[in-house]
Design brief:
Blueprint lengths: L6 E10 L5 E4 H4 L2 E4 L7 H7 L7 E6 L13 E5 L13 E5 L5 E9 L3 E5 L9 E12 L2 H6 L10
Bound molecules: zinc ion (ZN).
């Protein structure tokens, strides 16, 4: 069996940035299982894994347009400090916000001023080339329920 539409694929992976720094690794949180063809992972990686078999190693670089998108300056904005929930503020905190076009997005606190705070709605990896080193550990057929939900049911959670 190879990686194809509606396959449940389990991968070990390391994601590095342009400087070689490790941005994410399955060594830290276990192998990742995803449902292929349902946009569970970034498009560039999904494309690179298509047709591969168990044991294959895939090294690929994903550009922002097939990764987390380009950085958008219009997603960085300031609001009065009192618009945020009460409590201690810390750089890197995340909040849910709504963009001007009504989209729900997660924003990161990137600057704390006396009166205003600056929030960034870009994905932390937006604008970056993503260097993936992947090993395919397992491939199985998805259940009908998984396909209709668009994600893997691995027993640890369900939604
Ligand atoms: Zn489900």
């Amino acid at each position: 069996m190879t990686v194809d539409q509606d396959a449940v694929v389990t991968i070990a992976y390391t994601l590095k940035g342009d400087g070689g720094e490790v941005l994410d690794s399955s060594e830290n949180h276990g192998d990742l299982s995803y449902l292929h063809g349902h946009q569970n992972i970034v498009p560039g990686l999904e494309k690179a894994l298509a047709g591969k078999a168990v044991g294959d190693q895939v090294d690929t670089t994903v550009s922002p347009d097939e990764g987390y998108g380009e950085r958008r300056d219009d997603l960085v904005f300031s609001v009065p400090r009192d618009r945020l929930p009460d409590g201690e503020l810390e750089l890197g905190m995340q909040f849910r916000a709504q963009s001007q076009d009504g989209q729900e997005l997660v924003v990161n606190l990137i600057e704390i001023g006396d009166e205003e705070v600056t929030l960034d709605g870009n994905h932390p990896l937006a604008g970056q080339d993503l260097h993936f080193a992947v090993t395919i550990r397992d491939i199985r057929e998805a259940t009908e329920e998984e396909i209709s939900h668009g994600h893997v049911h691995d027993g640890s959670h369900h939604h």
